[in-house]
Amino acid sequence: MEQFAPVRRSKDGQPVRYLIVDDSVFARKNLARMIETFGGQVAGEAGDGMTAITEFERTNPDIVLMDITMPQMEGIEAAEKIVRQHPEARIVMVSSVGYQENIVAALQRGARHFVQKPVKPEVLYEVIKYVLGEDGSVAHAAGAGV
Amino acid sequence: MKMELIQPFINAADAVLAQGLKSPISIGSLSMEEQTYRRQGVAALVALSGDIEGRIIFDLDPQTAVRVASRFAGSELPESDDLIRETVCELANQTVGNAITALNDAGFHFRVHPPVLHTSEHGMKGTEDTEALVMCFETSIGNVFMNIALRYNLRRQGERTAAAGS
Hints:
The structure holds 2 protein chains of 2 kinds. By secondary structure, chain A is α/β, with parallel strands linked by helices. Chain A has a single domain, classed as Rossmann fold (3-Layer(aba) Sandwich), CATH 3.40.50.2300. In chain A, 38% of the residues lie in helices and 21% in strands. Chain A has 5 helices and 7 strands; from the N terminus they run ββαβαβαβαβαβ. The longest helix of chain A has 13 residues. Chain A starts with 6 loop residues before the first strand and ends in an 8-residue tail after the last strand. By secondary structure, chain B is of the alpha+beta class. In chain B, strands 1, 2, 3, 4, 5, 6 and 7 form a 7-stranded antiparallel β-sheet that branches. The radius of gyration of chain B is 16 Å and the shape is elongated. Classes of the chains: A alpha/beta, B alpha+beta. The interface between A and B is medium-sized, with 24 and 27 residues.
């Protein structure tokens, strides 16, 4: 898999910590592999919106990658509940359902960005850099780069 | 056969498979089915409800599913029942999600239900107003079957027509 220049937290130079929320283990594994190529770290995983909320409280991640269509509680509702409690939360919706009203609903309820499946690593990498803003920095390690 | 319903699914499957497998895809066979669906391998079913109702089934043999998962992941993955099930379900999820995005942009509204494993030998039978199309996508690592049975929700269609006329 392609390697990217590592993205670190600006405040301490540590790897960016991610919470991955998707009811598909296969999708979670794929996202976890991409995150590794970005120099990130998986802080936690959840298979539904309810678990995502408790995992967010437990892990306090830098970024949440959140699917939309999930059992028990869907991703947009979970994002809204997380952001209500933690306005600083950075949530990126990752879904195959990418029509406009879905995207608008997610953004209105607190998500920072939207990435459509199938996820292209280079697209997710750019979105993560954008969402982190000044709180993230790209470490130009030897041999790494896009 | 109403191609305006079917074409987005063909386009989406083609795009999802081509991107994930990083190789060209061709449609090997395409047929209308009036008989009940007979499962080929491991199958995942996604149900739709709303302006359009019905279901999509993705069907792969287990070895193809492992090869697909490995290509999507970018590394060889060990075969397991979980991996096979997950791969078929996620393939269905991504294809249907992309297709309904296109249909939604065309004005149709519906709800997608999470994929479930289709374990019985047979699926739903096509009816007079439910097109059932079976197609085989030929890839470099095996065949992927997609079975589509969709129909317009006549009640919703009537409401849309009435709204347009008022």
